[in-house]
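Open question from group meeting: does this chain pack into something compact, or does most of it stay loose? Before anyone orders reagents, we agreed to write out a predicted structure and look at it together. Recording both the input and the output here so the notebook holds the full record.
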Amino acid sequence: MNLKDESACEIGTVIDIQNDFLLVEVEKGESCINCKLKSLCFYKGNEKTIFQIKNILNAKKGDKISFVIEPKIRILSSFLVYILPIILLIVTYSFCKYVLNISENLSILSAIISIPLCYFILKFIDKLFARKKLINPKMIKKI
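Structure tokens returned:
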């Protein structure tokens, strides 16, 4: 993805400056409203979010800036939210049916029960990623 691609940019307002970093307040973007992995995209609930970004363009307090999140983080987030539950469903069914030799109906039931388990797995991953601060938005320009 070209970092200059305007369609992938988010907009935030600089509320403070600390050394070489800006504290930027961002409202939730349209593309992330339903995402469950908030720490991957730094949005917390419905309120505005404050995060740090390297001040590479000498932005000042009150400036609006546009930034972009790396595509690999967006892809990872999408994989975890949409594909991981399907993989867990298939693995649980296969394990119950072929390894444990459980009946077809109980294997299907076990696979369905594994879906809520995926929620807890995602919550754990979310907390793990939040501690490691994997999100490093790239400042594009001052608006």
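Observations to bring back to the group:
The CA atoms of residues 34 and 44 lie 11 Å apart.
Helices lie at 38-41, 71-99, 104-132.
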